Amino acid sequence: MRYLLFALVGYVMGSIPFSFIVPLVKGVNITKVGSGNVGGTNVLRSMGGYAGAVAMILDGVKAFLPVLIARAVFGVSLPEGMMIGFFAAVGHSYSIFLKFRGGKAVACTVGTLSGTLPWYVAVFFGIWIPIVLVTQYVSLGSLLALAILSGILFLTEGYAVGLWMLAFFGLSLFRHRKNVLALFRGEERKTDLIAAFKRKRNEMKNR
């Protein structure tokens, strides 16, 4: 019952669609623009870096908070904390508020790490940022960072934590399956992070 309750709380929290809500505040239905995906990357591409960053941070927070509260108040173990975050990622990917549509679980994975193993967040971004800046492929940077982290956590944190990290990677890989095919075909959309933030700043100056 304990595990079921934690999984349910994680899923419901993860289902809150911040990457849908943030654009909606600006009058944009994110499912109708760009790739149509309800995730931070589509918000960033379609509305600029700042809106994308806010959406990604909030999508991370909805995994971070239940994990943090469960560990601080209920004293759950590290693998249990990873489990709660994983179900938040499932909720993010298959939100009950969006007819089981959603994002691709990366922000929730980072949020989970923030609440369980925060020092590995720096490792994630240490891998993710250079890859995305050089290749401009967010999907490639995300998947490689998660894959490498899975291997690292098996070696440093043990079998149980490593398996949960592998589960995060597997979920994200499944959600990115079309992106992976597009990468192999040379058809994946590029995202220039620097240009995305510059574009929004220029729009604010021109108002």
Automatic annotation (TrEMBL):
One of its GO terms (biological process) is phospholipid biosynthetic process. It is a multi-pass membrane protein. Pfam families: G3P_acyltransf. Signal peptide: none annotated. It is found in: Cell membrane. One of its GO terms (molecular function) is acyl-phosphate glycerol-3-phosphate acyltransferase activity. HAMAP family: PlsY. PANTHER family: GLYCEROL-3-PHOSPHATE ACYLTRANSFERASE-RELATED, INNER MEMBRANE PROTEIN YGIH. This is Glycerol-3-phosphate acyltransferase. It comes from Mesotoga prima MesG1.Ag.4.2.
